[in-house]
Amino acid sequence: MVEYPTESQIIDLNKRIIETVIDKKADRHKLLKRGSITIALNKAKRKEGDIYDKSAVLLSDLIRNHAFDSGNRRTAYATIKVFLMPMVFL
Question: Which pLDDT score is estimated for 90?
Answer without folding.
Answer: 46
